[in-house]
Amino acid sequence: MLEIILKFLPVVLAGLLLVVIFSMGYVKAPPDTAFIISGFRKPRILIGQAGVRIPFFERLDKLSLKMLSVDVKTTDFVPNADYINVKVDASVKLRVGQSPEMMALAAKFFLNEREENIIAKVQDTLEGNMREIIGQMELKQMVTDRKAFADRVQANAIPDLEKMGLELIAFNVQSFVDQDDVIKNLGIDNISQIQKSASIARAEAERDVAIAKAQAEKEANDVKVQSDMEIAEKNNALEIRKSELKVESDKMSAIADAVYKIQEQEQRKSIEIASVDADIAKTDKEAELKAKEV
Question: 22: how many CB neighbours lie within 10 A of its CB?
Answer without folding.
Answer: 12
